[in-house]
Design brief:
Number of strands: 5
Helix content: 25-40%
Shape: globular
CATH superfamily: STAS domain
CATH topology: Transcription Regulator spoIIAA
Structural class: alpha/beta
Strand content: 25-35%
Order of helices and strands: EHEHEHEHEH
Distance between the termini: 33 Å
Number of domains: 1
Length: 133
């Protein structure tokens, strides 16, 4: 598994109003996302979603389009990150076009909680700040 992170302003990716303001951090994951790889992803997401004043990222998009396999442990990491984002009023969105990832979300009904977007710009346009609740 490989994890790459960047802020939108660094890559020319723009949000839905056309401004690459850099307040979105994209986490691109590739390869197998399983019990062996999940701790690394958990650490990256915890670092981005931590709540120490202004530290952390206000909006996080996890790009799973290059994930070849994903198990329930990895799904649990994403659910925990989503809950953390909501608790700290941060935005958390997922991108995936993988039928395997979509099947895991469908079987667990998680697509209703954390929808999968087809690309990063779409995820940015469809996300709103998470609300605690």
């Amino acid at each position: 598994m490989t994890i790459t992170t960047w802020k939108t302003g660094e890559t020319g990716v723009v949000d839905d109003d056309g401004a690459g303001d850099g307040d979105v951090t994209v986490v691109r994951v590739s390869g197998e996302l399983d019990i062996r790889a999940a701790p690394e992803l958990r650490g990256v997401l915890r670092g981005l979603l931590r709540h120490d004043g202004d530290a952390g990222a206000p909006r996080v998009v996890v790009d799973l389009r290059e994930v070849t396999f994903m198990d329930s442990t990895a799904l649990g990491v994403l659910v925990q990150a989503y809950k953390t984002a909501r608790a700290h009023r941060r935005t958390f969105a997922l991108v995936s076009t993988s039928p395997r990832v979509a099947a895991l979300f469908r079987v667990t009904a998680m697509q209703h909680v954390m929808p999968l977007h087809p690309d990063v710009p779409t995820a940015l346009g469809r996300t709103a700040p998470a609300r605690a609740g």
